[in-house]
């Protein structure tokens, strides 16, 4: 869909829109992304029904836990970005979840072997030693993570050509998990088509998913945004590819 609205109007609307939490409903009708085939929220919901104590790291707005049909007796989530904390607390109140604001670096404010299950969707960084520490023997860590070079096409449309990605490779996660004393029992990868239909969707996405273009601002990247706007109008869409991997590891 090529919009008839102008560049400045679309950009101003996207700049003013809230980006708290980790939901993407603002993009409805303006951008789409294929979902990973494993159904992360469903996997988490099923696991939560089988444990007594669970922790969600980097919960965002608590969206994944809120879908759990049978939450455990103890359900805790952490969040480091201050605007997300009140959103997550409101979201998780209805399933009996507790949200703890934490710093961006360890340690986690929990005792050793406190949880049967630790989960995390799209963590900024996985502190494997801390995950292993707070898991009970036999407990599991289940995480959907961002893979290397995700939506690289969009990053390069704004920043120009980039070197090959060095971080977020699944094999690096496996090595780090095993070095922390965990056993990796599942690893799956997926490449997902991501489509943006207008420049406002691009701006909102870059404000929310901040690692796509580090330090992104509209004023600092206006020329590149205008070029991308012209491309979207000419071609009807801008296509990128997100990369995800699912990893499950157990404490020995």
What does this structure look like?
There is one protein chain. The protein is 33% helix and 26% strand. The chain has a single domain (7-251), classed as Vaccinia Virus protein VP39 (Rossmann fold). The model has no long low-confidence stretch (mean pLDDT 96). An 8-stranded mixed β-sheet has the order 1-7-8-6-5-2-3-4, sandwiched between helices. The chain is α/β, with parallel strands linked by helices and 252 residues long. The chain has helices spanning 7-16, 40-48, 63-66, 84-93, 128-134, 152-159, 170-179, 199-208, 222-235, and strands at 31-33, 53-56, 74-79, 98-101, 115-121, 135-146, 182-196, 238-251. The chain has 9 helices and 8 strands. It is globular, with a radius of gyration of 19 Å. It holds the Pfam family Methyltransf_11. Keywords: Methyltransferase, Transferase. GO terms for molecular function: S-adenosylmethionine-dependent methyltransferase activity. This is Methyltransferase domain-containing protein.
List its salient traits.
Rossmann fold; 252 residues; eight-stranded mixed sheet
Q: Gist?
A:
The chain is of the alpha/beta class and about 250 residues long.
Task: Reconstruct the topology from this structure.
Layout: H1 7-16, E1 31-33, H2 40-48, E2 53-56, H3 63-66, E3 74-79, H4 84-93, E4 98-101, E5 115-121, H5 128-134, E6 135-146, H6 152-159, H7 170-179, E7 182-196, H8 199-208, H9 222-235, E8 238-251
Parallel strand pairs: 2-3, 2-5, 3-4, 5-6
Antiparallel strand pairs: 1-7, 6-8, 7-8
Number of domains: 1
- CATH architecture assignment: 3-Layer(aba) Sandwich
Can you summarize the main beta sheet?
Answer: 8 strands, mixed
Which structural class matches the secondary elements? alpha/beta
The number of helical runs is 9
Going across the biggest sheet, name each strand in turn: 1-7-8-6-5-2-3-4
Computed CA radius of gyration, to the nearest angstrom? 19 Å
**Given the C-alpha coordinates, what overall shape results?**
globular
SSE pattern: HEHEHEHEEHEHHEHHE
Count of distinct strands: 8
- Report the β-strand fraction as a percent range: 25-35%
CATH class: Alpha Beta
